[in-house]
Please model this.
Amino acid sequence: MSNRIRNKRKREPIVQLGDSSHLHMIGYNVAPDAGIVCLPVSAAMKLLFKIFDKWQVARSTQVALLRVSPSTLTRYIKGGIPRRRKTIECIEDILVTELMLSVLFPGQKHNVQKWLVSQNRAFDNMTPIEYAASNGTMKIRKYLESRVYLG
Model:
């Protein structure tokens, strides 16, 4: 492969899951001094769609959560790689939300699902999924992180 072709390739974006010391503290098997734990976006997308299946999120809601068009979501499902920073931030928020839910409800898939679809005063009496679809994913992530890290 020529240098010209190699240099034209775009480097795959990464998704940051958080600081290794925090992940270690809540029970994940990472070295506490490893720094920021990251995944290539292609791997993060595989996890994201498994999470959407686990949470039973409709395609229309997936579009809203990721802030993309239906055709863009279809491209991602077929293996396309997001490059927009805002989309990558939504993916990070959803992956971290799943991590936090697994800490708050270990081995309790039913309770995770119940939490996701129950009205919550912290989210204007909307369900967390409805709130995130309408207002963005960050507040859900921050709410759960505060519950995990601050009690």
